[in-house]
Design brief:
Number of strands: 10
Number of domains: 3
CATH class of the largest domain: Alpha Beta
Strand content: 25-35%
Helix content: 25-40%
Shape: flat
Structural class: alpha/beta
Number of helices: 6
Largest sheet: 4 strands, mixed
CATH architecture of the largest domain: 2-Layer Sandwich
CATH topology of the largest domain: Histidine-containing Protein, Chain: A
Radius of gyration: 20 Å
Length: 235
């Protein structure tokens, strides 16, 4: 292997990150790279692991794109009834999801989530929970937000700002994040330390009751922090 080849070096970095992950390390996933474009190959047990592998690979500096050629193993025959039962168990086991509000039906291994949720964060959590069930090929959400949970934009700004300010998450500092809301859609602008902090900020905002959607495209990830967006930083 030519250690001076940047693609070979990047492949080793991606492989190391996947191997070090507690949930993915035992799969022995294969990685190939061409001009910064990563291809992942191998077999995993559940859709959640497939998604996580793609996410971790994309986080490695230098990766331009990720092609997911990973396949799912069901360890034998599993029908939609089995999948639906496992999805129901995963939804019930996730403390972020109220199974009385979100249910699921399964068609050809595709999970369709249905119901009403008080905030977008519960919908995200339900999608993640369903993806952990065996035999799930994809998850599609038809969940709507409960109209009774609608909150005016000014109140949502205060809720999200407060949640960010009290969150104990490395790399997420409310002093560097500006919160804007229009029609229940939260726009986060400013700076976070890394991709993990970015995802944490999105999740924190999503978990506030009344939030329809969170747009984090205005967040700068990494580099040196700019001037704080607020007059006084948290200590």
């Amino acid at each position: 292997m030519d250690k001076s080849n940047p693609d070979e070096k990047l492949a080793r970095q991606v492989e190391a990150k996947l191997r070090e992950d507690r949930g993915l390390g035992s799969y022995g996933l294969k990685v190939s790279v061409h001009q910064g474009k990563v291809t992942l190959q191998g077999v995993v047990d559940v859709l959640a692991d497939k998604k996580r592998a793609r996410k971790l690979a994309a986080e490695v500096p230098g990766v331009r794109s990720v092609e997911d050629a990973i396949t799912l193993s069901t360890d034998g025959t599993i029908d939609d009834a089995d999948v639906q039962m496992e999805v129901a168990e995963e939804l019930a086991a996730d403390p972020r999801v109220d199974p009385r509000q979100i249910g699921a039906r399964v068609e050809g291994g595709v999970v369709h989530l249905e119901g009403r949720a008080p905030y977008q964060g519960m919908v995200r959590a339900a999608v993640e929970a369903a993806a952990r069930a065996r035999g799930v090929r994809d998850v599609v959400s038809h969940v709507t937000l409960d109209k009774r949970a609608e909150v005016d934009d000014a109140t949502l700004v205060n809720r999200v700002e407060h949640a960010l300010s009290v969150a104990v998450v490395p790399g997420v500092d409310a002093a560097y994040i500006d919160v804007q809301v229009k029609g229940g859609v939260v726009n986060l602008k400013g700076w976070v330390k890394d991709k993990t902090a970015y995802e944490a900020a999105i999740e924190i905002a999503s978990n506030q009751e009344g939030v329809v959607r969170v747009d984090g495209t205005g967040l700068e990830v990494g580099g040196e922090p700019p001037n704080p967006t607020r007059a006084r930083r948290r200590t």
